[in-house]
Amino acid sequence: MRRALATLLRLRLPLVASLAAILCATTMALAPGFESLPVTRPTGWASVPVFSFVLAYVVVGTAIAGLACLGAALYLVRPARWLVAWSDRSGSRERGGLDALQGSATTTVQRAGAARDTARSTLPTHGSWERLEPVGLASRRQVRPFVLPWLLGPGGAAGNRSRRHGAAAGLFGLLVLAGGLAHLGERSGSWATSQPVWEVDAGTADGYVVWLEHRPVQADAVFFLDDMSLFPHGAPPSVWRLPGRAAYSFLVSLRARLAAPAGRVYAAFVVVTLLFWWGAAVAVYDLGLRAGRSWALGVAAGTLVASGLGFTFMVGNPMSNAAAYGALPILLWLLVRGQVFAREAQWTEGLLTACLAGALSLLYGLVPVLLCFVGCYYVGRGELRRMLAWSAVVLGVGVAWEIVRRNAGVMDVKVLLGGAAATVVVGAFGRFRLAQSAWPRRLLGLPSRSKALSGGLSLGAGSLLLAFAWQSGGLVPAAAAAGLQIPHYLLPDLEARASEVASRFGGGWAVWTEAVRQGFFDVNVLAAFPWPVCVAAVVGVARLPRMWLEWSVAIIVAAWAVAFAMIVLSSSPHPRLVYFAYPGVYLLAANGLLNANDAVRALLTRCASRGWVPASLAHWVAAVVVVTGWLAIVAPSHASLGGEHSFNHRFHFGNLTSGHAP
Amino acid sequence: MTRGLAGWLPHCPNGSVLARLWIRYWPVLGLLPPLVQGAGGAVPTAFFVLVLLWPATLLVTRIAGVPAGAVCGGVCVVLLAAQAVLPPPEPAIQPDTLWRRFDHPQQAARHSMRLPVRERDWAAMWARRTEPEAYLYFLLVIHETVRDPALTVWLNDEELGHLSAATEVAVAAAFPQHWHRLPVRRDQLEASEVTHVRVALRAAAPPPAGGVGLVGTYSLRPTFGPAASAFFDGRDWSMAPRVVLPELPPPPNRDVVRTLVEKQMSAADPVRYVIELRILDPAAKRWLAVYY
Predict the structure, then answer these.
(1) Distance between the two ends of chain A, CA-based, in angstroms?
(2) Residue B255: is its pLDDT beyond 60?
(3) With contact defined as beta carbons under 8 Å apart, do A293 and A135 qualify?
């Protein structure tokens, strides 16, 4: 079973590609309009291979997850080995339970990965830029503080690296600030695209608008303005306008109190958004730095994020979309750098990361994307029990928020605090006493005061949730929906929608794929990532370490699978959900730019060696190619400043029709 | 005691014991003001402090060291304390939908536009292969019992037409608002530098029972200038915002906005009636230009 899992993990991408090719070929053979491909390309032809790949990845990923769970279950029925594994933390060779299957598979993959990485480290990386030392498979304890060294780095090579990090962060800050300021107010894409374009469009000449401090913003922003005013004193449940995005209103409310005396509430929204945007650029920079072991790749990826279409579109709008875009790569970075699913990881860090993920998911509903990504990428690479616990905490935060929101202002806070404190104390004491006994210690792990405290907190939190749920009666379905962050407008007739979708699928594969072909790629994917980005991303698949290629594909598939589900259930395009794949897409696109640079340089260097062209030409031409490619990728983000709003229109609605109703 | 307490703290090679204690327990201090002030209503704030700010501070400590974590905790405490000390923010929201009903047969409303009739883009727009069509759009508020708004429109003192059930456009609008439009010729628009559009009850008849009027809104970039709209009360024309759009309740589905608008609306804010000139490409059914 371990060998089968390790093999599946190693061959995942080739297997997915093969399955996707079969699906694609079958679809094109059955669907009308593809007879003369590629001479004549029917509308939306690219949807078929993209959708086939996403579907194949989901199927293979589900199979891997099922195999992992089956293996864990099989080991669980052998209690002797399982108990031995739980009691022996000193690295014994005896393995069992959930650890064994994941551990051995992880070890196999890690050894293979280490061998490949070692081989790659001897090959020239992108251009002549600095080659960093291999990150390797450092355990959690080697997560070094890398913020302060950027500012106060030592001299020598380490100092140069620190200064490069600082320069990169400064560059991203400048790009974010310039891009943000350039797209505020009337230049906001999300407002400008709400203005009437077609004869049937509703709304005045100023579009779907609310006027905030004499600036036009999209009218949906009024929900966040109202929710912001509910902090810190809360309100009855019925007053919350967008409870699923309350984290943004909370963060803005912290800032708004300082900005309000100057009459700049709009500035509070913008500051929060810009901070998340900058954080995303820095996170993707660090991920790119580790992916290609190249400062150039990190900078290229970071600058693409700092000029991203989704950010420039939403930054001028006091809504949580841009902040959610920024939060996603920060969470991904924490998972990568913290290695929270590794065997050596501390449970505390996993708990903290999960809490933060659950809380930041309350910016825009990131839970489905995060859980899909963890399932796609980390199954087989980390401990299953840690993933399950992490996922449970992430879901639990959303459920807890729903329960807290519905009961805030109803329960007496003194009773609440007193009950919580008593529960924590009793739980901590009980956990501590339990851990001191020999037999429970074998089951529950090493005793320590910190574990007792954390165990007590967990018991306390769990007791509170149960108390709220008991008091609230039929809250469980709503809380479950809150945990998964299903949009409220889908809930009333979710079952009917799902049935209607299933009935469409019953029409056969050709009928189903025909519907997908019409709308998926052109209307959604291309709207979020225009052609230059897609081309660069495809080119970037080559020469990226396998681990990072899988990482990029996993985040892309996770985001597009969730977006596809929303598109199908809501019967409307969602390019703004498809855009959540941008960490993977921009990493691939940045690698594509550097691949192009390397290819051009290699070609011209060979020509120069034969005397056909001057030797210095290679560097200059390669640089021009990179800069041109970068400008082509970034241009759609700022095209609206020159009067070209088609990219923003597509990003907003999936096509050039606004069709917006007030 | 310090050594004993240190055992409870995460292993951090740098930073004093006090800093580490501060990182671990700052939420206790930070949550006191809102909980004391807001009682049960502060629980949402406490929730986000415990699941968002506190874990973020602890993670910052793990990543960037104890000093960074302590600073992060301090910033959070300051922001939370500011919520308790400073007055709540009241965002200045300008009116986006207000109504001006005709209460008297002699009343009239006017909106002026300065169209770019001398500019090259204007000429190029009208020189297209398919000649554009121009319409004056009016957003009216009509009581549900009224079938015919019975309004007359003048363009530069020349009667343009009547707004009736026949001029209503099938474009979505929040009830009880309705879009109406009248066609306009190019020569009518180019007749003068400034285009005045006047709306009044037909033949000075009494207003229909239940009321009919114009919708108004904040004026962002009026072509004529800030005082683009005016109202005639039977004696004088006035461009004062509170005469053009007196405080009337907006549509009932915007109750919260109504509260904010009533608190924040300033007499100095420029306002306008929703009377717009729209130039249409009839082949593509797409607006070439919109002016107000």
Answers:
(1) 57
(2) no
(3) yes
Please report the pLDDT score of residue A155 as a whole number. Answer: 47
Residue A338 · residue A390 · CB < 8 Å: no
Q: What is the pLDDT of residue A158?
A: 58
Q: Do A146 and B51 touch (CB under 8 A)?
A: no
What is the distance between the alpha carbons of residues A517 and A658, in angstroms, rounded to a whole number? 21
Of B52, B84, B287, the CB nearest to A197: B287
- Output the six-digit token pair for B113: 């536009």
- In chain A, the residue whose alpha carbon lies closest to the alpha carbon of B133 is A199
Residues of B within 8 A of A198 (CB-CB) are 285-287
- Residues 6 or more apart in contact with residue A631 via CB below 8 angstroms: none
pLDDT grade, residue A95 (50/70/90)? very low
Q: Residues of A with CB below 8 A from B73's CB? A: none
One-letter amino acid at A582 equals: Y
pTM: 0.83
Which of B8, B43, B259 to mutate to probe the A interface, most A CBs <10 Å?
B43
Using a CB–CB cutoff of 8 Å, tell me whether B5 touches chain A.
no
* A661 and B CB contact within 8 Å: yes
pLDDT in tens, B201-214: 987 677 776 689 99
Say yes or no: B267 contacts chain A, CB-CB below 8 A.
Answer: no
Place of tokens 């600095």: A130
pLDDT tens readout for residues A179-233: 999 999 889 999 999 888 888 888 889 988 888 888 899 988 988 988 888 887 6
Query: Which tokens go with A417?
Result: 């605090």
Q: When comparing pLDDT for A89 and A492, which is higher?
A: A492
Q: Taking Cα atoms as reference points, which of A308, A363, A299, A303 lies closest to residue A331?
A: A363
* H helix runs in chain B, sequence order: 2-6, 17-38, 43-48, 54-64, 66-85, 120-126, 186-189, 241-244, 255-264
CB A410 within 8 A of CB A387: no
- How far is it, in rounded angstroms, from Cα B284 to Cα A656? 12
Tell me the chain B residues in contact with residue A200 when contact means C-beta distances shorter than 8 Å. Answer: 170-171, 285
- CA of B155 vs chain A CAs: smallest distance (Å): 20
Whether the pLDDT of residue B113 is over 70: the answer is: yes
Q: Pairing relation of β-strands B93-94 and B158-163?
A: unpaired
Name the 3-class secondary structure at B138: strand
With the C-alpha atoms ordered B127, B133, B134, B139, is the resulting torsion angle positive or negative? negative
pLDDT for the residue A583: 97
Give the rounded percent of residues in chain A with a pLDDT score beyond 70.
66
Q: Look up residue A566 and give its amino acid.
A: M
How many CB atoms neighbour CB A120 within 10 A?
16
- Length of chain A, in residues: 662
Chain B, window 23-82: residues with a beta carbon less than 8 angstroms from a chain A beta carbon = 34-35, 37-45, 47-48, 51-52, 55-56, 58-59, 62-65, 67-68, 79-80, 82
User: What is the separation of C-alpha A93 from the centre of its chain, rounded to a whole number of angstroms?
Assistant: 36
The confidence score (pLDDT) of residue A235 equals 65
Exposed / middle / buried, residue A237 (Cβ in 10 Å: 0-12, 13-18, 19+) = middle
Reduced to 3 states (helix: H, G, I; strand: E, B; else coil), residue A474 is: coil
Interface list for A 355-374 with B (CB within 8 A)? 355-356, 358-360
Contacts of A195 in chain B (CB under 8 A): 290
Out of B7, B58, B220, whose CB is closest to A216?
A: B220
From the number of C-beta atoms within 10 Å of its C-beta (0-12, 13-18, 19+), residue A235 rates as middle
Under an 8 A CB cutoff, do B89 and A256 touch? Answer: yes
Q: For residue B289, name the pLDDT band (cuts at 50, 70, 90).
A: very high
Say if residue B166's pLDDT is above 60.
yes
- Chain B's closest residue to A351, CA to CA, is B55
DSSP state for residue A129 in the 8-state scheme: S
Taking CA–CA distances from B14, the nearest residue in chain A reads A145
